[in-house]
């Protein structure tokens, strides 16, 4: 049995800790294991390739809106194969560099193979066992496949495998209504496919505020079909045609949806092959690795980070976890994780971005009388009016005393950029919104919508009246 100082599972954010360990001890010997291409989920099949694909989709939507501004622009064709080839070229350049670095390091034995625990501190790779006194688990996650009769036989894509297609399917049915479904549904529709999203949850984008989801759904439906509260009962295939029988969970009415390809975007779950329970590592009911506030597992000198913990499956959160582990393992500190302001974004048209508490959570924690809500429409700013932006808005939640920011939610162009001003303040000692309220904002720029939301604070009941009026005006 080969002995290492450290075993690291995964080649994503965990590699920052591996590099720090090597820098600290040039003689350290580390086994790095990844069954997939090196670079982690974000680079190989997650945020980076998907965002490379979504940029051309954004350009398509921009061209489609050009007529509103007096521009006679025609989109003659979409070269789908070229769009996909560009993505692969950019991604594989980085993958190859990482692979070269792993393979040439004197400190690392790189195993490009599945790994599983066989006992505490012991793993099986390539048919043999290896052991280490310290283990870092950045194993990531894998697509969750719902149990639907006929789905496997009919065939389907996931967010992992859709990157391999070279020909655009004419009709696509997406099972799921979360951010993966929204982003890939938007991309495929912009490329020219007829897309139907079938979400089981009554709310599209169920992790967002209801009014944010409402606006996102309304505008996305200009290019694709979104059915919420629909349970897919079974799938049948005849030739190249796939039929999905679904039932509305409220009305019980059934409908059949026809597609050439099915994309399963029903969430992600833990990596099944790892078997941490064999190593005495506790997992929760869903199979995610349980960690304490220091990212330590139930087994001494074994840590987990990123997706493997089941908390906030975002690359920026995994990078943050790696910083915490660096301090706890290499830096000689005892640093706890702090997830009070983990942001996320959905890169569709419109963009959606969120950080911190939602309204119901803020009211539950602080009380209705202690929460104020800031609200402002993009179109009520000079830049928003110039861009003809309808319905889009910023919502900011603050504590009445001291105006500490509790959360923020944005739907509209550049939401992922605009929210950063709020995020940064949430990492200051008092988390006050005052710097936004008092700071000079460029006019006319979209950032004014965040400033004005923070200057337009109101009690929740007033906010709901204002929001209903604003959305109602635009519905008529």
Question: What brief labels describe this structure?
Answer:
alpha/beta, FAD/NAD(P)-binding domain, Enolase-like, domain 1, seven-stranded mixed beta sheet, six-stranded antiparallel beta sheet, globular
What does it look like?
- By secondary structure, the chain is of the alpha/beta class.
- The chain has three domains: 2-141 and 270-330, FAD/NAD(P)-binding domain (3-Layer(bba) Sandwich), CATH 3.50.50; 151-266, FAD/NAD(P)-binding domain (3-Layer(bba) Sandwich); 350-475, Enolase-like, domain 1 (2-Layer Sandwich), CATH 3.30.390.
- Helix content is 33%, strand content 24%.
- It contains 15 helices and 23 strands.
- The protein has helices at residues 14-24, 40-45, 47-65, 80-104, 151-154, 179-191, 210-220, 315-330, 359-366, 382-386, 415-418, 420-425, 434-438, 448-454, 460-475; strands spanning 2-9, 30-33, 108-111, 115-119, 122-125, 128-137, 142-143, 157-158, 171-175, 194-198, 225-227, 230-238, 241-248, 254-259, 261-264, 268-269, 302-304, 344-346, 352-356, 371-377, 393-399, 405-411, 457-458.
- The strands form five sheets. Strands 1, 2, 3, 4, 5, 6 and 17 form a seven-stranded mixed beta sheet that branches. The chain has a six-stranded antiparallel beta sheet with strand order 18-19-22-21-20-23, sandwiched between helices. Strands 8-15-9-10-11 form a five-stranded parallel beta sheet, with helices on one face.
- Helix 7 links the parallel strand 10 and strand 11.
- The longest helix has 25 residues, at 80-104.
- The protein starts with a strand and ends with a helix.
- The model has no long low-confidence stretch (mean pLDDT 96).
């Amino acid at each position: 049995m080969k002995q290492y100082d450290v075993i690291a599972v995964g080649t994503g954010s965990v590699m920052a800790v591996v590099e720090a360990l090597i820098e600290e001890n040039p003689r350290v010997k580390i086994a790095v294991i990844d069954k997939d291409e090196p670079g982690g989920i974000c680079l190989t099949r997650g945020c980076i390739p998907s965002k490379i694909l979504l940029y051309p989709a954004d350009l398509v939507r921009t061209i489609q809106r050009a007529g509103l501004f007096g521009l006679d622009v025609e989109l003659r064709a979409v070269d789908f194969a070229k769009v996909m080839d560009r993505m692969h070229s950019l991604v594989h350049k980085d993958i190859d560099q990482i692979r070269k670095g792993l393979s040439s390091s004197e400190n690392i034995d790189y195993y490009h193979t599945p790994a599983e625990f066989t006992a505490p501190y012991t793993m099986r790779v390539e048919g043999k066992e290896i052991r280490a006194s310290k283990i870092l688990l950045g194993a990531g996650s894998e697509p969750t496949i719902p149990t639907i009769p006929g789905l496997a036989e009919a065939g389907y894509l996931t967010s992992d495998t859709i990157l391999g297609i070279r020909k655009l399917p004419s009709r696509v049915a997406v099972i799921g209504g979360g951010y993966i479904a929204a982003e890939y549904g938007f991309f495929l529709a912009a490329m020219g496919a007829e897309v139907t999203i079938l979400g089981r949850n009554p709310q599209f984008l169920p992790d967002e505020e209801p009014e944010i989801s409402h606006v996102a759904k309304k505008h996305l439906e200009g290019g694709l079909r979104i059915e919420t509260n629909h349970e897919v009962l079974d799938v049948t295939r005849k030739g190249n045609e796939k039929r999905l029988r679904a039932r509305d969970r409220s009305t019980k009415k059934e409908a059949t949806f026809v597609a050439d390809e099915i994309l399963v975007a029903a969430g992600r779950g833990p990596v099944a092959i790892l078997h941490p329970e064999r190593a005495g590592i506790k997992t929760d009911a869903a199979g995610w690795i349980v960690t304490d506030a220091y990212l330590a597992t139930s087994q001494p000198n074994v840590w987990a980070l990123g997706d493997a913990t089941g908390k906030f499956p975002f690359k920026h959160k995994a990078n943050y976890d790696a910083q915490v582990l660096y301090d706890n393992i290499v830096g000689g500190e005892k640093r706890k994780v702090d997830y009070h302001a983990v942001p996320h974004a959905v890169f569709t048209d419109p963009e959606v971005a969120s950080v911190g508490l939602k309204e119901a959570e803020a009211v539950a924690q602080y009380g209705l009388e202690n929460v104020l809500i800031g609200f402002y429409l993009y179109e009520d700013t000079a830049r928003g009016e110039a861009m003809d932006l309808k319905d889009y808005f910023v919502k900011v939640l603050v504590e009445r005393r001291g105006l500490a920011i509790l959360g923020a939610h944005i739907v509209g162009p550049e939401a992922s950029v605009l929210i950063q001003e709020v995020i940064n303040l949430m990492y200051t000692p008092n988390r006050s919104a005052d710097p936004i309220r008092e700071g000079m904002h460029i006019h006319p720029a979209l950032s004014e919508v965040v400033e004005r939301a923070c200057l337009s604070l109101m009690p929740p009941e007033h906010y709901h009246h204002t929001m209903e009026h604003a959305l109602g005006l635009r519905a008529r």
